[in-house]
Design a protein that fits this description.
The protein is 72% helix and 0% strand. With 358 residues, the protein is mainly α.
Length: 358
């Protein structure tokens, strides 16, 4: 590096030390978002997502405290189609079992808001944040608030005519949560003073960015799988209906509907995206090992390869078990961890490249 680049790197490291509490805070918020996503998965898989039929951003933080409060919540649930079609057998005690999952999910969302806003103000008062940092962080706060609105928009789709939420709104809510998590990781990682190890080329950056895009698409596709319970059918692997490419794909008209509404097509697309991600990860690992030797392979890439392998195994296990809840929630959570790892790696690569360490 030149003297100018060395000076810039030294200044970055000094600033990074001051930003260490900020980075820890952002990682803690990211972990809370991940927990909320997994609780959301439990809420979906236990059929609890429509148990609270009102949206009260402030007063909703207090759960029912009396028998009258519980009866009022249960009365509201009895008015929606899901109760009439599936759950008309429920007693008040049964209702409480599904209510708490949804309440915890919403409670975590509120706690994330507090956990973000209060330290943000403290860091501003401490002057740890420059204007260039404060503006993106404020945008992250707004994105988190918008996620809460999307959650209610999703729930509202199941309160009048449907017996569950719209898969389109579910996938939107899930993808927005992913983008929020990735944004938190990206901002925190870019504040880190040390660049990544090894040589960084434009090919590294473009290929990892493409991998991240594929993962975002795959997680959104997983939202459609969950939204129409596509994982409950075709519970064999590697074949579907006895074939690798099953008959009957694209059965709906117009054709685009099959991508989002036809169980066979939705699950097939999810499988194919998984194969593409696994293949791309393997190719990137092999190419980097051939170019730089095993010692030159970035540690992030090795971790990503391991996560992809475990994620594929979890996906297959979830399918074969006909969506066993613990496997399904682990599959969803690990997908977010994998995407976050790729995002962190990409942030490191771009920062190293911008410092001229190529």
């Amino acid at each position: 590096m030149t003297a100018v680049q060395n000076a810039a790197l030294s200044q970055t490291i000094i600033a990074g030390d001051r930003l260490r509490p900020v980075r820890i805070w952002l990682y803690a918020i990211a972990l809370m978002v991940l927990c909320m996503v997994m609780v959301g998965g439990m809420t979906r898989l236990t059929g609890s997502g429509l148990s609270i039929t009102t949206w009260r951003p402030i007063s909703g933080i207090i759960p029912p405290l009396s028998e009258a409060d519980w009866l009022a919540e249960f009365a509201g649930y009895k008015l929606i189609p899901q109760y009439d079609v599936y759950n008309h057998w429920m007693t008040l005690e049964d209702f409480k079992g599904i209510f708490w999952w949804e309440w915890i999910h919403r409670f975590l969302g509120r706690m994330i808001g507090f956990a973000f806003a209060i330290p943000f103000v403290v860091f501003l008062l401490q002057k740890r944040l420059t204007r260039d940092m404060a503006v993106p962080l404020a945008c992250l706060f707004l994105l988190g608030g918008f996620q809460g609105f999307l959650g209610w928009w999703m729930v509202s789709s199941g309160l009048t005519e449907l017996t569950s939420v719209s898969q389109y709104r579910l996938a939107t809510h899930l993808t927005a949560a992913l983008l929020l998590l990735l944004a938190l990781v990206w901002v925190a990682r870019r504040m880190r003073p040390q660049p990544t190890e090894g040589r960084v080329t434009r090919f590294n950056i473009v290929s990892i960015a493409l991998l991240l895009v594929l993962l975002v698409i795959q997680i959104a596709a997983g939202g459609f799988v969950a939204g129409i319970d596509a994982g409950m059918g075709y519970n064999t692997w590697p074949l579907m209906e006895g074939k690798f490419i099953p008959d009957g794909l694209g059965a709906y008209e117009p054709g685009w509907r099959s991508v989002f509404e036809h169980g066979l097509t939705v699950q097939f697309n999810h499988r194919m995206l998984a194969y593409a991600i696994a293949a791309m990860t393997a190719v990137l690992l092999i190419l980097q090992a051939r170019r730089a030797g095993l010692g030159g392979v970035h540690r992030w890439l090795v971790l990503i390869a391991v996560l992809v392998l475990v994620q594929v195994g979890l996906g297959i296990s979830t399918l074969l078990s006909m969506v066993q809840i613990d496997l399904a929630v682990s599959h969803q959570g690990l997908a977010f961890v994998l995407a976050s790892s790729v995002c962190a790696y990409l942030a490191d690569l771009t920062k190293t490249h911008s410092l001229g360490m190529r």
